[in-house]
Amino acid sequence: MGPVVSLRATIQGGVIRLVARAFRACFRSQTPPGYHRHGPISDGPTHEPPYRLERVAAIDDGSLTWRGEHDAGLVQMHLLEFVENSVDFQHFAAIHGRLRLPWTEIPVPGMTIHHEATWRRDETQKHVCWFGNEATLEFRGKQIKRSGAHADVRLDGPGSIIRFDFALSRGRGRVVLYQNHTPVAPLTQHVRFRWFSGPNVPKPLASFIVGNWVSQWRQDIGIWERKIYRKNPMLTRGDGPIHQLRRWYAQFYPERGSKDARAS
Ligand SMILES: [Fe+2]
Question: How many secondary structure helices (H) and strands (E) does the chain include?
């Protein structure tokens, strides 16, 4: 089945505060310039963030360098949508099965993408989960050898900070892409991308890879902006671990009766 679930819920107040703390973690000295350029989002007193972002050694030591950034503007969606999208395994073929010209929604004739997706919680950091995707290209249904890429995707927190680590099938190239969803209002996220690659992935190739991802990401937006929340979605055996994901995600909601819950 296709995308099944969403949240038009009332938790935004609490989630925004959690995300604000996570972002503040980025602003501090542990994060080198280039990861994020945004200033503090509040002038008020700040709390210690509940977690800090993992550093990428290859960015710190300069073996991966900044290659570009893209401001995708505002998207009317709940933060949960992107996270839940990663476990909705059945939608990949239907929504992301066609190769598109990078940075556009124009399909490339005859070319399709085959996806193999996985999802798991991090074993040691409870605010982290991982999504994996093996994407291979096909021409008229026939697989193109050594095409495509594998992506290890780390999600920190409730869907605000996502790090893609792409390993290209050809040439052992690596691209690290950050996708950030900054909550600016209830059900409104400011979405930005920023990417890095090594010397064997020059800027145009890195842009091609990221542009492919952004083209696929755009296919989801119209769905996310129209979905409604189903507490108990009807799922089939072939659907992904959506209930597992929701149990993991529950840690980011304010506790019942708390000040955050009452404010939302
Ligand atoms: Fe999707």
Answer: 7, 9
Tens of pLDDT, residue by residue over 94-129, are 999 999 999 999 999 999 999 999 999 999 999 999
Mean pLDDT of the region 131-151:
90
**d(CA 211, ligand 1 centre) in Å:** 15
pLDDT at 21: 47
Tens of pLDDT, residues 18-70: 444 444 444 333 333 334 444 555 566 667 778 889 999 999 999 999 999 99
Q: Where are the alpha helices (DSSP H) in the chain?
A: 12-27, 57-60, 80-87, 91-96, 203-224, 242-249, 259-263
Calculate how far, in angstroms, residue 83's C-alpha sits from the geometric centre of ligand 1: 10
Cα 243 to middle of ligand 1, angstroms: 17
pLDDT the model gives residue 171: 74
**33 CA to centre of ligand 1 in angstroms:** 30
Distance CA 50, CA 11 (A): 18
Domain residue spans of the chain? 12-34+55-253
* CA 220 – ligand 1 centroid, Å: 5
CA distances from 245 to 5, 93, 180 (A): 12, 20, 20
Average pLDDT over the chain reads 83
Q: Which CATH number is 12-34+55-253's, of 3.40.190.10, 3.90.380.10, 3.10.520.10, 3.30.70.250?
A: 3.90.380.10
